[in-house]
Amino acid sequence: MLPSAHAHAMQVEQEVLGKVSPTAERRDAIQRTVRSLLETVRKEADARDLGLEVMLVGSVAKDTYLNDPDIDVFVLFPELISRNKLEKTGLDIGRRTLTKVEERYAEHPYIHGEWEGLEVDLVPCYHIKDPQCLRSAVDRTPFHTRYVQSHLGEGQKGEVRLLKRFAKGVGVYGAEARVQGFSGYLLEILVMKYGSFRAVLEHASEWKKGVTLGLEEDQGKRFQDPLVFYDPVDRGRNVASALSANSFALFIHAAREYLKAPSERFFFPSPREPLSVEDIRKAVAERGTGMVVVELDRPDLIDDNLYPQARKSLDGLAALLASYDFTVLDKTFHIGDRIRFVIELRSLTLPRAARHNGPPAWIDNASSFLEKWKGAGLSEPFLENGHWSVMVRREHTGPKSLIEAKFSSAGLGSDLRDLKGLRVETGEMAISERNRSALSLLLDKRKNWEV
Ligand code: CTP
Ligand code: MG
Prior knowledge:
Number of helices: 14
Helix content: 25-40%
Strand order of the largest sheet: 1-2-5-4-3
Distance between the termini: 24 Å
Structural class: alpha+beta
Radius of gyration: 28 Å
Bound molecules: cytidine-5'-triphosphate, magnesium ion
Number of strands: 15
């Protein structure tokens, strides 16, 4: 980094730190709220006489939260208690303590609600002895919390806050399926590994796909993920397993760009407006490509289930088009009130004629090829290098009829397979107010910090 950029980065980071760190009053207020919440949950838990423990976890417990934290509270159940009883009791404790409660499902149900105006996740888990022997997916969380509490230096908490805000601004914060990015815990252990926010970015700008990191002597099993960070509490797990190649790459790119020209825009990007219908029309006309928008009803699923199914369906749709000779230049999907797949094709029309290649003339069943195509194609069978070919009539010369006829047999997410509410629009028809956000997502390639 150039000395001038260095001084500028210091200034930017001081500024951002001021904005993302809770004030002393805010911190005290959160502490009080947490204390009264834990007290109430403990009372509810103790009344069950099941040997339950209540533990504050997540970023409030680790003091790495940004201004508006969710409070994460876990209720730890002895391993002898059945899964069913854990779920029932866990939900019941949440319902009785919190307000505005909503039952939510991750791998197992938990309660989201409010306590004194702050949002709370109340999650039941098993009190396991060894983080390698999980009974439910969230049982490692108390180990993560304790690990960070005992290993993250006081002076590094601000560094974590900067890094979280940076990842958020860039668009890669969160391990959930919608984002496929960096979890809070991953960013915390990255700061432990490299020491500071800036050091994380400096190292990240040199990362190669498959980079493997650890805090203890890293001998664990091999992973195929773009980034591997052995979990210090369970060497058999990659903390970065949810990170996609794109989020990994975008983080590397953002790190390089930030180090070249530090700016608050990486942390606090401007909101992005969808392009106007007029601008979309102009952009598409200039490209001369063909836009296809395929809409489906949005099934009632949580994002962690919906996004993987939408991704799979988008790939299935593109593969279908490619197998019928359409050239897919780009593709994306947008989930709003409905699911919209956007495909950019080299062209929306294919000629009626397609060439169909047959067997060499000297093999026995060459005659069946000839019989099949005699008078049936757009040409008589003809020879090239001794092989028969024929010009045939293409069934679908445009994407709309193809998708309407064949989308159901493409590789689709299981809850999208019935194609409820299917609508296919192409070309000028696809460019409309309703499709603005979806088309903008494909056309507007500016990075968050460039908006
Ligand atoms: N967790 C979970 N299920 C939930 C909520 C949280 O398993 N419904 C676990 C996560 O796996 C994580 C911890 O609880 O280990 C806290 O989750 P989260 O709030 O996402 O991360 P934080 O570290 O608290 O970071 P943030 O500042 O984003 O809240
Ligand atoms: Mg949290």
